[in-house]
Fold each of these.
Amino acid sequence: MHVLLLALNYWPDKLGNAPLMTGLAEGLAARGHRVTVVCAFPHHEKGRIEDAYRGKLFDRETHNGVEIRRVWLYAPEGGALAKMANYASFTLTALAAAVRVPEVDVVFTPSPPLTLGLVDQAISALRRVPFVYNLQDLFPEAAVRLGVLSNPRAIRAFETLERHVYRKAHHLSIISDAFRDHLLERGVPDHKISYIPNYTDTDFITPRPSAGNAFRTAHDLEDAFVIQFSGRMGYSQGLDTVIAAWRQLDDLADARLMMVGDGQARGMVNTALADDPRAVLLPTQARSDLPALLAASDVGLAPLRAGMAGTCIPSKMFGIMAAGRPVVAGLEAGSDAGLMVERAESGLVVTPEDPDALAAALRQLHGDRAEARRMGAGARTYVETHHSQDVVVDQYETMLRDVVARGRG
């Protein structure tokens, strides 16, 4: 089959959905399918289009068996209005590129942005093929909970668009079973929903010893207990809670905090930790260095703001677990992600935006290194079984084949 994948972020972007969509596209191509990706020019890490693509409107290339058609978009750093302009511009240029892709069997699109559902609908009607909308988060609910979308008229408009996309999609895939209730409440029949979790590349990210680790050596961390946050520093992570918890651990002489990434909250992190000799601040690292980066940690952080665990799954958890490290996650009790950590016995779940609880969890793992190692081993076993790339791509392939077969029938 020929899959048209519309995604805001794709290789070589390293954050957000880019690694997930890249692995999915390349996994389907490796299984003998034709895959065409329409995506934006790389921009996610720096908040601007990368230099190699500046001055262009469209570009085409092939990478690992996948045809990639890249398009321009407005790429500023900023608040809600800038993000909306970013999404709107990509929707228009993605449509212009997608209509030129011939002989498509199925269209697949991850959120965000929600407006790509309109592009899906247009291509579906033009090519007479089904489209699958993949919910990586719940919009506009997530934006409302974060406080970045508060205008009542805008909220109503996006809720109307949300229902429209769900109604017009031939199928919906979700990464959290909690999303199912959200869809059912909006009138989506259960037979139209497939739960397929996110994944990590367990062949690429493997447990490695911390001794001799390049990041530990470079930053004088050989004998340290390293607490690491690695990923996009956005509004939803609540990194102010991480900093407040860290300041309660001054008495742990060997503890170090490693903050790795870029995004809207990076300036706040830099300001808060610039004069802290126990903190290591690094920009987003090359994907090829990710296994070594994760192996530099003794514990990985996956914080979210209160109320967010029901609208998204922190994908960084899977990388931490694949590296065989325990995760300390700021998640509501009973959330899908929180239950996963508890089922896998892969770390500790604390109340979101509670610095005292986060500090206590980190202190617990610092004081019981054997328990931390046991949790890390359990984490690795769990992701190998349930969240490896091969396992999840197989599920996507089966779902897409079924959708195509029903469309032809």
Note: The mean pLDDT is 92.
Amino acid sequence: MPREFVELAQSPCHCRAVTGRGLDQALAAESVAVLADVHGNAVALEAVAQEILAIGPDAAVFLGDLTCGPLPEETWGAVRGFCSRFEGAARFVRGNTERAMIEAATRLRDGSGELTARERWLIDAHAPETRQAIEAFEPAVTLDVAGLGAVRFCHGSPRSDEEMITSATTGARMQALIAGVDERVLVSAHTHIQFDRTVVGIRSVNPGSIGLPYEGRPGAFWALLSKGVELRRTVYDIDLAVARFRESTDPFAESIVEMLLAPPTPAQVITHAEALVYSS
């Protein structure tokens, strides 16, 4: 793969990133690790990072909703640690929680609206330099992956970071949400359910959630693209994650613990998502 990288000088995270390339100029890669919906679960991310480092893919794409959870700075520290040892390129896609935090921070700065207790907590729990790095996340990323061709990576869908794509999304909605997008392989996140399907000529992939999966079984879920799609699951110490969450001052910590230990079933999430379409 090309090695046209520079360090992200504006960011405290020393991942190497491609410069001078827009969404229409895809970086070529033989293999890509895809990590999504960590939601501040640093314990799960550290376990997955070790596995990815052992595999050594050409690139890693973080699909958003990365640090907004009980352990935001610990999670960003895990990202920085991963990047310091990763030889490939790392790309970061903005999720709806990153966007919401940036918008809340803007309202706080401008005095232009009320913030919830959770919004205030998330802003305070992220160091200013971490928030600055998050503001540089991209709305979408395109990579040319061996065996798959041009692949579009986004958080929700190409048209909204809150649109929920599932394994039951109709062909008509898939055609509508992919309108104007040239890529025929779409990797998205947001619903926390892992799948790989082809509908109306579009290969739709969700790597699952690392930090808060809705899979009916424990683990950290992610994907490896390499001449195909490999849906992966990494076992980690969930009891440690629960203990760390409960030590957090996150107002939502206990609710997140409950979802981690007793998540909704995939069928429940799919029914809910297809009824709403957009999570907002």
Note: The two ends are 39 Å apart (CA to CA).
